Endonuclease/exonuclease/phosphatase family protein
Amino acid sequence: MPLRVLQFNMQFGQGWDEAHPDQAPVDLDATIAEIRRHEADVVFLQEVEQAQTGGRQVEPPPNYTRLCAALPGYDSCFSYPRADPRELPFGLGLAIFSRTPLRDTFREDLPSPPISFDFFGEAKTPTDRVLIGARTVVEGREITLLNTHLLAFFMLKTSGARYPQQRERVAELLRAQNGPTLLAGDFNASNHAALIAQFGACGFSTAQQTEITWRRRPYVLDHIFFNAGLQCTDCRVEPTPTSDHHALVADFILAEQGAETVAPSSAQTAA
């Protein structure tokens, strides 16, 4: 039975306005309709909430709460990044929704380097990022689900090659996986070929790498990575006016068990 996966940076429900993208209205109902229309079995979301003044994190998370109510029949998990008063008013927070029950949920902080950048005349440094994960069972097979949103070094006028720690930590988690695994997210890599090569060395392929997924610049920022425990049978980028990112939809089937990757004996499990 195919497993449909949706990867979507929902930008806290803010739609797209070509003329005034930063002033586009927030319409969470339109975001929910966009998520529903793909009828995915697993949904990976980034920028679920909007950052608040002083880094305040609203509990319960309002957008995630509405999503849970609007997506009955899904199990889910959510995490903010580590609270930080330096947080800027953009999107933050990750969620995973699954039609099959989730278990062994976890989060991993991904520290950001102390790079100084200008934000409307003020010197700022970036806040930390986060990766979340869970496990589920499909057709009697356990699948690991990982979701992240990495720092956009190109927005800070530098390169991830100079500050590789976030991606290296994600790569460590990939190498630790013993069975079918999906890693989705907004990887904010302007040079997506280097990202694909790095995770390829860990035994993971991306579902697509040719179509642009971000409206603001011609970059392939969004990916669904998978290892040999899964086979991708179809993938498409779905343009949507409900975010500055397009939606990415992919279908998978479970591979023969003998084809699954085996982690090195020295690797630790992600949980």
User: Anything to note?
Assistant: Confidence is low (pLDDT under 50) at residues 259-271. Residues 165-175 form the longest helix (11 residues). The chain has one domain: 3-259. The domain at 3-259 is CATH 3.60.10.10 (Deoxyribonuclease I; Chain A).
